[in-house]
Backbone:
């Protein structure tokens, strides 16, 4: 058995998991998410936990077993606690501010114009400081995708470290020109 796949997923209080066929619907205080379990993997709910089992020991099914368990666990965690990614902006004059009633982020990143980044539905952002952006939501994939798209606007460069970086990301610095 898969070490990850065989672990049961505990359902916290206030979260409901409904399984109809291959579709898993998870409802909690933060919202509702659903996902379809791939063929060869079955999901069942018993005694406040979700258990995923597989039909055979073929290599592709074994791989799907562990992945399915992780994705269902992310659904449960997302609707109960949510996910967030923190981004830092380094550079003189680089800053971020919420615009359009919190539906977009306006960024000054050293370009000749400000960059407006529209947030998709289900994603919220906070800017407590002008150099910090916190992206949060219930869908782990969507939170990570939005954070990656924000970072892609101006990734941190290795000479001065200017740009957007994740919390905990280490930028390997290079030595600049050695002048005489």
Residues:
């Amino acid at each position: 058995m898969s070490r990850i796949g065989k672990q049961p997923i505990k359902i916290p209080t206030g979260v409901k998991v409904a399984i109809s066929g291959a579709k898993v619907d998870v409802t909690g205080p933060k919202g509702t998410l659903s996902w379809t379990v791939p063929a060869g993997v079955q999901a069942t709910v018993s005694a406040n936990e979700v258990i995923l089992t597989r039909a055979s020991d073929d290599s592709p099914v074994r791989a799907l077993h562990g992945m399915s368990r992780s994705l269902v666990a992310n659904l449960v965690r997302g609707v109960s606690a949510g996910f967030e990614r923190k981004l830092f902006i380094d550079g003189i004059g680089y800053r971020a501010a919420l615009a359009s009633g919190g539906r977009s982020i306006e960024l000054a990143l050293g370009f000749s114009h400000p960059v407006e980044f529209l947030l998709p539905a289900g994603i919220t952002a906070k800017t407590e400081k002008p150099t910090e952006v916190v992206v949060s939501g219930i869908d782990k994939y969507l939170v990570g995708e939005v954070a990656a798209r924000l970072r892609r606007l101006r990734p941190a460069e290795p000479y001065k470290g200017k740009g957007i970086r994740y919390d905990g990301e280490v930028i390997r610095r290079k030595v600049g020109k050695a002048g005489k």
About this structure: The mean pLDDT is 93. Residues 28 and 124 are 18 Å apart (CA to CA). The longest helix spans residues 59-80.
